[in-house]
Amino acid sequence: MGYEISGQVGLVTGANRGIGKAILEALLKAGAAKVYAAVRDPASVSGLTEAYGDKVVPLELDLTKPETIKTAAQTASDVSLVVNNAGVLKTASALSENALDSLEFEMNANVYGLIRVAQAFAPVLKANGGGALVQLNSVASIKTFPEFTTYCASKAAAYAVTQGLKDQLKEQGTLVVSVHPGPIATDMGHTAGFDEIAEPPELVADGVVAALQAGEFHVFPDSLAKEMGAAYESFAKNVIEAEMSEN
């Protein structure tokens, strides 16, 4: 069963730029009544509040600071849709001198941050009828690129957590969506050196909206992601999305 965005209240982490900003705007276009822009610096979303007025509510949230997440969940007690978009990336292979420091940094935001968001907001979503939780993972969660090994490891772990949340939150009527973009034209994509092959963040936003409306778990929104998603589809459908016994 799909999630109807129109009239709902959403929250997007990392909403001040890139994919997060595109998702926030796509949710408003789809009829969301209000969206919390959950960011480390609320002043960074001034352009969005100027453009959309009180439909955008700045909110402090840092994935690496649990107290800000708990406070945000208390403030945004009316949300029925949480999009955990924020994340970090370091360029480090398994043999890099900074590999362990990079992995610790990425795990703290990309994995522990997801768990913190899920733990804080799952009760809120339940109280508001179930709603939906969207996690921005990556094609890097299913394929390791050597120079980004630590980032890929963190995203693979986040994908594993997302799968667990899919099954667990189903019991309270919460739809969980796992999004797997390829190279996207964002600040992070630029830092990673993807400028020549990067595609617009609006592709991701449109994919998120479509998946919510259709009630789908996996989203492979851009050209590279679609190619990888097609190759992965059989396993995804028959193992990841299938109802399987643990015994």
TrEMBL record:
Q: In the UniProt record, does the keyword Glycosyltransferase occur?
A: no
EC number(s) per UniProt? Answer: 1.-.-.-
Q: Which domain of life is it from?
A: Bacteria
Q: Does the keyword Transport apply?
A: no
- Enumerate the InterPro entries for this protein: NAD(P)-bd_dom_sf, SDR_fam
Listed A to Z, the keywords are:
Oxidoreductase
Query: Which is an annotated GO molecular function term of this record?
Result: oxidoreductase activity
The family classification in the record reads: Belongs to the short-chain dehydrogenases/reductases (SDR) family.
Q: Which NCBIfam families match?
A: PRK08264.1-6
Write down what this protein is called: Putative oxidoreductase
Which organism does this record belong to?
Answer: Gimesia chilikensis
